[in-house]
Amino acid sequence: MAEMVAKGVWVEVHGTVLPAGQRAPQVPQDTQGVPLEMRVKGLLVAPAALGEEAEIVTPTGRKLRGRLATVNPAYTHSFGAPIPELSGIGGEVKAILKEQEGTE
Amino acid sequence: MTPHSSYEAVMARRAEIVRKSIGLDYDRYRKGVLAFDYEGLLADTGYDLGAVQAIQCRTAVGNTPLVELKNITALVRSVARRGKGARIFVKDEAANPSGSFKDRRASVSVHEAKRRGYEGVAAATSGNYGAAVASQAAKAGLRCVVVQEAFDSKGVAQPEIAEKTRACEAYGAEVVRLSVGPELFYVFLLVLEETGYFNASLYTPYSILGIETLGQELATQMQDRVGRFPDVVLVTHAGGGNLTGTARGLRQAGAGDTTVIAVSVDLAGLHMASDRDFNRKSFTTGHTGFSLPFTTWPDRADVPRNAARPLRYMDRFVTVTQGEVFYATEVLAALEGLERGSAGNTSLAAAFAIARELDQDQTVVVQETEYTGAGKHPIAQLNLAKRFGVELSRGDPRDNQPGRAIVIPEHPSQIEVVDVDLQHVRRSYLRNALASCPTGAKLNEDDLAFLAAETRSSLADVMEVIDELQGKT
């Protein structure tokens, strides 16, 4: 049995708003073939198991139901590795300015 | 999480939901089939420039520094013909409370919501505007919901939007994150209906009046620094509010002769509602995916009549490539010590090309910067692009192909702008205007005068194009 998550824990719930094939008529084919999904974070209203239906209260006080997807969801966006195609630009433009100073 | 009301049912209630959430009776301003009293709609809000300045003074919005980019000017002069290379200045809008000019728009909307007794505000936005509304709502003690298009069907979030989710949550907002698709508006309407919150739309009169201070400030700052108004102001152009508000502010400051140039990142070939293309854009705003549709038909917005009407105010419309903007962003950090977000640097990239053609005693103002950080940085965007198979190289920016290849210039002399044909844009606007008319409706004199003002054309020109589009010539 999936581990129970306690009431009051900060979680994210997930749900389907519109299933694939029932999207708005104007969306392109690739989008038409996938559902419109929704993810919202809030505090768990009652103990629930991961992957099961759960209710949250959001920071505005709204109550929403969805599948309990993540407990204390992390911010994972980052920078990543430096980009070699950008790394040289600073040196190049400084060299142009230096050369320019020499000719003036 | 299945909504209690179907897509069709909610869209059918759209007008009623929007009316309640803004509290403006747009019908009062209707003058014909297409025409409406644009200036009356703005004036009746009661917020003139002085009133907006007073609100923004209390919320620490605006009065941002105007910085002369002396080293970039020197770089541009090194690749310009003798005597050419205008002085370049930037309005450092990243100094606003949530890090972008969007605080100007949010400040008036949130003030109006509070004044009218709404408990909270809601906005449909994946960009800086969400953080701006959340920040202003926090200060005003109002609740806030931001609805974002945030991730694709594989669950991969666009890192810039992920950063905006974090910022909104830091300001205490509820963030509703959606996968790709224009049905975001459906979810937004459901949120408005359920909460009864004020619709802090990007396109209400409040949002546009909030930006007028930006144009007014930069005109006054240039007057103080250089002794005259700028020759050119470059505006990063997406939905049209930035351009409309800035140009109106310039005019009110007396700088009506300043040339206003709209600049967008060229994203030709990428579909804005495509799940596949979503994470291949490398830009979430300032691009042609917004600017072309909104310039050629502003009333596609989430309010009945859009207060952002960019075609009325632009003297020229140009595009730059993704690679050119990333290059300009690197140069701004390396030569001027300003590390700023790339989308906000769209018009900076154009400044390299436009200043090069102007005389040295002329001036160019780039009217915004935005904050940068995790996710919202060229390194984050280019790592995502590589992950999605977009080829990255140094070379001729003309070889840049949105969604396939990002080409970073090898030298500042390679940066060029491409003009969007304004005659073509005006024609598209008129085609869209005609298509929006109910069948059999006849345009009256007010309509024709409105279309002339909208397209900055003569009545005769408007009538000629309409006849042509209707097959009468």
Architecture (CATH level 2) name of the domain at 55-96 and 208-419 in chain B: 3-Layer(aba) Sandwich
Strand order, largest beta sheet of chain B: 1-2-10-7-8-9-13
Count up the helices of chain A: 3
Number of domains of chain A: 1
What profile does the largest beta sheet of chain A have?
4 strands, antiparallel, barrel
CATH class of chain A: Mainly Beta
What share of residues of chain B is helical? 40-55%
The fraction of residues in strands of chain A falls at 25-35%
Written overview of the protein:
The complex is a heterodimer of chains A (104) and B (473). Chain A is of the alpha+beta class and 104 residues long. Chain A has one domain (4-76): SH3 type barrels (Roll), CATH 2.30.30. Chain A has helices at residues 29-32, 84-87, 89-103; strands spanning 4-5, 10-18, 36-44, 48-49, 53-57, 63-71. The model of chain A has no long low-confidence stretch (mean pLDDT 95). A 4-stranded antiparallel beta barrel of chain A has the order 2-3-5-6. In chain A, strands 1-4 form a two-stranded antiparallel sheet. Chain A has 3 helices and 6 strands. In chain A, strand 5 and strand 6 (63-71) form a beta hairpin. Chain B has 473 residues and is α/β, with parallel strands linked by helices. Among the domains of chain B are: 55-96 and 208-419, Rossmann fold, CATH 3.40.50; 422-469, no CATH class. Chain B is built from 19 helices and 13 strands. The longest helix of chain B is centred in the middle third of the chain and has 15 residues, at 212-226. Chain B is globular and about 60 Å long. Chain B starts with 6 loop residues before the first helix and ends with a helix. The mean pLDDT of chain B is 96. Chains A and B meet through strand 2, strand 3, strand 6 and helix 3 of A and helix 5, strand 4, helix 8, strand 5 and helix 9 of B. Strand 3 (36-44) of chain A pairs antiparallel with strand 5 of chain B.
